[in-house]
Amino acid sequence: MRSDRMRTEPGYLRLYATGELAERSRELQSMLASCSLCPRRCGVDRREKAGPCGADARPKVAAMNLHPWEEPPLSGSRGSGTVFFSGCALKCRFCQNYPISQLGVGRVITAGQLAEGMLSLQRRGAHNINLVTPTHQVPAFVQALLEAVPRGLRLPVVYNTGGYEALETLKLLENVVDVYLPDIKYAEEEAARFCSRRPDYVTRNRAALEEMWRQRGPLRVDGEGLAVEGVLVRHMVLPGGLAGTRDCMEFLRRRMGPRVWVSLMSQYFPAHEAPGLPPLDRKTTPEEYERAVDVLMELGLIRGFLQDDGAGEG
Question: Is the pLDDT of residue 313 over 80?
């Protein structure tokens, strides 16, 4: 699909050179004393113990590896350099990665080890550093970035999030994150309460999406088709219309216009608690997914990706 083509260097390099990145790091570290990194604003001193997200101040990582199955502008020919953080600010009852996000699978490392992991991904040919579920681990990541930049890190940073974000944290990430990859999960408070136990998700998510758009705008790719900057919004079609697809897409069209890139996902299956929770206890049907595709076409949201049998490009 079409997009503006450009070349640029990661914004964090300029912030590092001016000392701004170090200042941002200090601000983020201070937020851990009475944690307000996500909309929960739990107030836990995460320097001393874990918050509801399941993490204390130290980086906790389940995996760092090349991932070939992200959207094409992210995975390219060599893979996206994914960093899977343990824990999560959300508690989605259908989470397909729940051992990592909710059961705490992973190991505690140092910021230096995280920096080395990112540099290793760069040496292995990763097209970017893809931070998966990073919201509660932003201070650790920025601290690691401070160590990785003088050692040669030059890859774009992708912020791969469920979309439940605090504006104060996002503003500290301006020009640190190159590509935002957020979800827009729900359109209604009751669906957010039922599926993720966060009735404020819709309000927080939409404010966060607008802030991400303000910072980076539409996705931009280089001459090889690789993402270098911008926003790509993911939406997974849920059974029984729980995701409120039409309302979600109308919001994107209204607030961001037809230039927004959307990845419409079909791979829902019952995981974690979902097998006992109708209608989450069944897969999305082909008909439900096709109706969601029709909404995209009707609204003129033609930039992005569709899925066929769980994988593919549209």
Answer: no
DSSP-assigned letter for residue 208 = H
Count of C-beta atoms within a 10 Å radius of residue 201: 26
Q: Which alpha helices (DSSP H) does 87-200 contain, by range?
A: 98-101, 111-123, 138-148, 167-172, 189-196
CA distance 274 to 92: 9
What is the rounded CA–CA span in Å between residue 101 and residue 38?
15
Burial environment of residue 283 by CB neighbours within 10 A (0 to 12, 13 to 18, 19 or more):
middle
Q: How far is CA 231 from CA 2, 60, 140, 149, 163, in A?
A: 14, 26, 23, 23, 12
Structure tokens at 273: 């608690």
CA dist 127 and 154 (Å) reads: 10
Establish how many alpha carbons lie within 13 A of residue 217's alpha carbon, considering only the half-sphere containing its beta carbon: 6
Nearest 5°: the CA angle 128, 263, 168 is: 65
- C-alpha dist (Å) from residue 113 to 118, 120, 141, 226: 9, 10, 11, 27
Question: Cα–Cα distance between 18 and 160 in angstroms, integer?
Answer: 26
In the block, tokens 């136990």 appear at 197
- What are the chain's domains? 4-305 (3.20.20.70)
User: pLDDT tens digits, residue range 108-141?
Assistant: 999 999 999 999 999 999 999 999 999 999 999 9
Q: Is the pTM of this model over 0.90?
A: yes
Cα angle 110-112-113, degrees, rounded to a multiple of 5: 65
Report the Cα–Cα distance between both ends of the chain, in Å, rounded: 8
